[in-house]
Specification:
Elements (H helix, E strand, L loop, with lengths): L1 H26 L9 E3 L4 E5 L6 E4 L13 E12 L12 E12 L4 E2 L7 E13 L4 E18 L7 E2 L1 E7 L2 E5 L4 E2 L2 E8 L6 E2 L4 E13 L2 E5 L4 E4 L3 E5 L2 E5 L4 E5 L3 E4 L2 E5 L7 E3 L12 E13 L11 E13 L2 H12 L4 H4 L5 H9 L7 E4 L5 E3 H8 L2 H33 L17 E3 L2 E3 L43
Parallel strand pairs: 2-4, 3-4, 4-5, 5-7, 6-8, 7-8, 8-9, 8-10, 8-11, 10-13, 12-15, 13-15, 14-16, 15-17, 15-18, 16-19, 17-20, 18-21, 19-22, 20-23, 21-24, 22-24, 24-25, 25-26
Antiparallel strand pairs: 1-2, 26-27, 28-29
The structure holds 2-acetamido-2-deoxy-beta-D-glucopyranose (6 copies).
């Protein structure tokens, strides 16, 4: 027995030794002997061009083939790297491959084709440029695909497809110039996160087609041009979150999403919305035919709208309980438009036109909807955001309109008075010939009385001299003298003795 044990352990040691020696052998040949690269004894391949190597070619054949024992690959800091097609297919232990700071990464169809034996491999590309991401670049069991700060000029149709067991697809700070239809086609993933970056001037119809996103679909801070109808066809997400995005234009049903949970749309800028832009978002209630009676939440908060049509912010009322708040309308507040804007956004009158299977439930719901003015905001002259009700209270209320009415009335009266004045003046001017000169109506008190003697220049100091006596004298030159007969009448009981 002891001899057997000894033999066995010797055999094991030999086997182990031979195993090490194969890895050792692979350390000094193939890709490992390339000047920019080195290998370690755990199956790691690290390449760093550092300005020495112009172009690094990763291939499974040729002068410097990749070893099939490779466990992980890190390529960094190279001006140009070419990953030939199917160069990874023989690496049954490949766990991760990373490209960092590659100025020109050239990929072919099936460049990322993995061995069917691999499990849970991750692909990371960071701070790199790719001219074309060709069709069927990927194939196999990829646990995670992560692009960070990657610029891609063109993503061909079916670039992302044939993925299995994918946990995460994360595109962060990426710039995609042109995305072809069906660039992302039919695979399952738990998390699809597109964070910041831009998806180009147009996201075509079915750019993301038929993906089952089982946990979260997130668009966060992404810039997009025109998003065509059914650009995002996504099934089963438990959470959908579209936030902080700036979108030029959303066509009808741009998001074709069958959610199994809540949908949150917040702090986005939608420069153009058409009727039914959000009507493609619905609930996936499974195939059992039993419709759950509960609604999912859909929140639409802190979004900015520039142009929008009637019914552009309608949601599927059969499936969702919409919570709408802080709708910011990026236009100057205008009393005459507030009602129209609210109506365009929240009026469901045209809903049945788009949603044929309108159920009684949805109809019931529609009738309950009250349009709250506090929900909406517009911009005043000094570019502050004002809620509709605040603006209306100060600018468009009944009291202020009454004030306007009063002002108008006063104006009218002033004008009337003016006109009447003019008429009177005109009449007077015309009747100048038989004008009457007014005679003083009050008898001038030129007479004073002293001890019953009536006389002029009475000795009393207070004798009044009235300058108001007006005399109408014919032309003085015709008459030498003029005689005045002044009759002083006094009808007063005399108190003095005569
Ligand atoms: C890819 O591999 C196929 C064979 O599998 C070959 O015919 C084709 O030329 C390769 N393409 C490139 C770009 O190397
Ligand atoms: C990138 O590398 C490929 C292959 O060497 C080459 O054809 C292409 O012109 C390069 N692109 C740029 C922008 O240098
Ligand atoms: C809202 O989105 C804009 C545009 O992406 C961003 O600049 C801003 O920080 C976001 N605000 C909040 C509170 O997240
Ligand atoms: C919306 O914006 C306001 C201020 O602009 C902020 O106080 C509030 O928290 C935001 N709400 C959400 C849900 O982001
Ligand atoms: C609001 O509109 C103005 C002018 O149309 C534009 O310059 C500004 O960027 C818009 N703001 C937002 C948040 O879209
Ligand atoms: C909705 O719009 C229709 C016409 O499009 C209008 O007749 C109706 O009064 C509006 N409803 C509300 C609540 O404003």
């Amino acid at each position: 027995m002891g001899v057997m044990k000894l033999l066995l352990s010797i055999t094991i040691v030999c086997l182990l030794w031979s195993g090490f020696s194969t890895i050792d052998a692979s350390n000094t040949e193939g890709m490992c002997s390339s000047s920019a690269c080195n290998c370690d004894s755990y199956g790691g391949l690290t390449c760093n061009c550092a300005d020495q190597v112009e172009e690094l070619i990763l291939t499974s054949d040729g002068d410097h083939p990749l070893s099939s024992f490779t466990h992980w690959i890190i390529i960094r800091n190279c001006p140009s790297v070419i990953l030939m097609n199917s160069s990874l297919t023989r690496m049954s232990n490949l766990r991760s491959i990373e490209f960092i700071d590659i100025n020109n990464l050239t990929l072919f169809t099936e460049s990322f084709e993995l061995s069917p034996k691999t499990m849970r491999t991750s692909v990371t590309i960071r701070s790199s440029n790719i001219q074309v991401l060709p069709s069927y670049t990927f194939r196999g069991d990829m646990e995670a695909i992560s692009f960070e700060n990657v610029q891609i000029n063109l993503i061909n149709a079916f670039a992302f497809t044939n993925l299995a067991g994918t946990e995460t697809l994360r595109l962060e700070d990426c710039t995609f110039d042109i995305i072809e239809e069906q660039a992302f086609k039919k695979f399952d993933v738990n998390y699809l996160h597109i964070i910041r970056g831009t998806l180009g001037s147009e996201v075509p119809s079915r750019a993301i087609n038929d993906l089952e996103v089982l946990t979260t679909f997130r668009l966060d801070g992404v810039k997009m041009g025109i998003v065509k109808s059914s650009a995002f066809v996504i099934k089963k997400p438990k959470t959908v979150s579209i936030q902080n995005c700036v979108i030029e234009s959303l066509e009808a049903e741009a998001f074709d999403i069958a959610a199994t949970g809540g949908v949150h749309i917040k702090n986005n800028t939608f420069k153009n919305l058409v009727t039914g832009s959000f009507l493609g978002i619905r609930a996936d209630r499974g195939n059992n035919g039993i419709k759950s009676e509960s609604y999912y939440d859909i929140t639409f908060t802190n979004n900015t709208l520039n142009n929008f049509e009637e019914g552009s912010v309608m949601f599927n009322r059969d499936d969702f309980q919409p919570i709408i708040d802080n709708v910011i309308i990026n236009r100057t507040c205008d009393c005459t438009y507030l009602k129209t804007w609210m109506n365009n956004i929240l009026n469901y009158t045209i809903y049945p036109r788009f949603y044929r299977s309108l159920s009684t439930r949805a109809v019931r719901k529609m009738n309950f909807d009250a349009i709250e003015e506090r929900t909406f905001m517009c911009i005043d002259d000094s570019t502050n955001y004002l809620r509709f009700d605040e603006f209306e209270a100060t600018n468009c209320t009944l009291s202020s309109s009454i004030m306007y009415l009063l002002l108008a009335a006063v104006g009218l009266i002033v004008i009337l008075a003016f006109v009447i004045g003019i008429i009177i003046w005109y009449c007077r001017e015309n009747g100048g010939q038989d004008r009457w000169m007014s005679v003083p109506t009050s008898a001038p008190d030129v007479v004073s009385q002293k001890n019953g003697v009536i006389g002029r220049n009475g000795s009393t100091q207070s004798a009044p001299v009235d300058s108001r006596i007006t005399m109408v004298v014919p032309d003085g030159r015709l008459y030498r003298e003029t005689e005045f007969h002044v009759i002083v009448e006094k009808a007063e009981p005399l108190t003095t003795e005569l």
